[in-house]
From TrEMBL, chain A:
Membrane-traversing stretches: 12-32, 75-96, 108-128, 158-182, 203-225, 265-288
Swiss-Prot/TrEMBL keywords: Cell membrane, Membrane, Transmembrane, Transmembrane helix, Transport
Family: Belongs to the binding-protein-dependent transport system permease family.
Tagged with keyword Transmembrane helix: yes
Localization per record: Cell membrane
Organism for this UniProt entry: Roseibium aestuarii
PROSITE patterns: ABC_TM1 (PS50928)
Pfam family, one: BPD_transp_1
Record has ATP-binding as a keyword: no
Name the record gives this protein: Carbohydrate ABC transporter permease
Automatic annotation (TrEMBL), chain B:
Record-linked PROSITE patterns: ABC_TRANSPORTER_1, ABC_TRANSPORTER_2
Protein name from the UniProt record: ABC transporter ATP-binding protein
Keyword Transport: yes
Lineage: Bacteria, Pseudomonadati, Pseudomonadota, Alphaproteobacteria, Hyphomicrobiales
Presence of the UniProt keyword Transport in the record: yes
PANTHER family: MALTODEXTRIN IMPORT ATP-BINDING PROTEIN MSMX, TREHALOSE IMPORT ATP-BINDING PROTEIN SUGC
Record-stated family: Belongs to the ABC transporter superfamily.
Pfam family, one: TOBE_2
Domain ABC transporter: 14-244
CDD domains membership: ABC_MalK_N
Amino acid sequence: MRAWKLKRDWVTGWLLLLPAMVFLFAFTHIPAVNSLINSFYSTPRGKRAAKFIGLDNYERMIGDPVFWKVLGNNLWFAMGTIPASVGLALVMALWVNGRLPGRGFARMAFFTPTVLPLIAVANIWLFFYTPGFGLFDQLFGGLFGWSSTNWLGSPDTALNAVIVVTIWKEAGFFMIFYLAALQAMPVSLVEAARVEGANGWTIFWRITFPLLMPTTLFVSINAVINSFRLVDHIFILTDGGPDNASAVLLFYIYEIAFKFWETGYAATLTVALLVLLCLLAIGQFFLFDRKVHYK
Amino acid sequence: MSGIADVRVAGQEIRLEHVSKSYGTGLAADDVNLIVPAGSFTVLLGPSGCGKSTTLRMIAGLEETTDGRILIGDRDVTRVGVAQRNLSMVFQSYALFPHLSVAENITFGLKVRKVSRAERQRRLQTVASVLGLEALLERKPGQLSGGQQQRVALGRAIIAEKPVCLMDEPLSNLDAKLRHEMRVEIRALQQQLGFTMVYVTHDQVEAITMADQVVLLNGGRIEQVADPRTLYARPATMFAARFIGTPPMNLIPASALPVEALPRGTRSDDMIGVRPEALILDASGPVRGVVRSVEYLGSDTLVDLDVDGALVQARLPGQDMPAPGTLLAFGHGPDDLHVFDPATGRRREGGVVETGLPRQSN
């Protein structure tokens, strides 16, 4: 009787898990495993079925100069967006956490970019960057007398222009996490530090910042993932150009898979991206682990 | 050998002159005038929302005063920042830094003020030995019990050897036994170290047992400033009379008592205060009432009496258990009646003389 009841509990449990698991497997796990398998096969074309080619796709990837170019771009993109957006988020959170007239408005203003779709954001910035009459050219031209610059059209500035848009988009989102963490922090800690003679700078570096470490870890892992994941705006702003100057890994995967229909090679690139992301996430945990204090 | 003598400091006097604090429309402190003598243990006592914490935080500089002046050791600190007021503080929640070890917590202020490492270590050893924290120095606050956390907070307060120490309900998070121990310990520490202590509590037992001087606050105003004995024996207001003592002092309309029992000069609309423990069973006594209910407390018994319509509580010694409905008569000592003017709530002096019946000596 007891065993039967236990078994029934077991069945109920799995039935409850089933709907979520179906979707998780159908859209995440099976495609991921399929990608791994496909990366060892050639791309099927017409009547020619995919055939096992071992590591040929991986050899091609290692010999592909565009792959190294977009990987380098992606690292530059990550280095440009992660520290800047996280740092900016922290500064904004500290600012709107304090007593400040119009605090609600400031919070809303900082969070607005997060609510906007990335495509819409990219369209707004497209106008800012327009050579000649865009906001930046008008501003810099008026202030410093700079000549008109094609921010998105020149290989030197295209990627940086995309980075700026990403920071603008992401900082407000990360700010929310910092703001929540700041508000959960007991006021008496800061007061105690003030009584002990600490100034604002010391309080930040010795108390506030260390106590925000769990948030910083969370936010920076998200920032790393986003730096490999956010490509929507590249389609609008530069379409990866000029000469792949602003293409990142995921953008390149999209082009290979859905423009050139080389799904086998695209699967290989996808596996490379997944491995890279896993390594980064694990590395971050180890790097931060000692410095993070969890209550 | 390092010890208490190494951390002795000279306390400083604190003076509040016409200090007020308003939040929007409400007054948290209303024209507070107070002198905290140097080296004294002064307790700010009162019910929730009486302004005691606000007053303490104004002394600390964590709140700005709306009006008035605050002086610490003859220096006007009204507009001086927290860090420059040269005081230490223990918070109700202890406010220990959770990511720092006990040692780092205690020496935080010294490090901020760039005291040398050797000096920090020396003082840390002294304080740790005084508070019995030697074995815990490497732990994080999260690994400590409530009592140990309290000690760390005390350590952080005394290591700087500041002349003034402020405490905001430091014992309210401890259990009863520990609270008693810490009460004794904090009092001993203050007397040995010699700093001026301002201590906020809503617990009259803490106030009575620890204080040199109790400041009783109500609604942002000072009701009475006195040593614990005076506060108990001669409450200045009806509020003080009711707030101090368990159970609180009885307040009986003068009209409910026989005229000959009243102190000379009592008006018929005055309120007469008498403590439950001051009422002594006496068949010829002036306070007569019918027993309504009886509460057995072990060491004594609490009786609720109906004295001409007024509820009066009396504490009977021993195991007497009068049945409800019994008529009892009580006498009292010559100084045990307190006369209050109900219009102002203040004590009326010059009334209580030999009208009370002499205490029975059996």
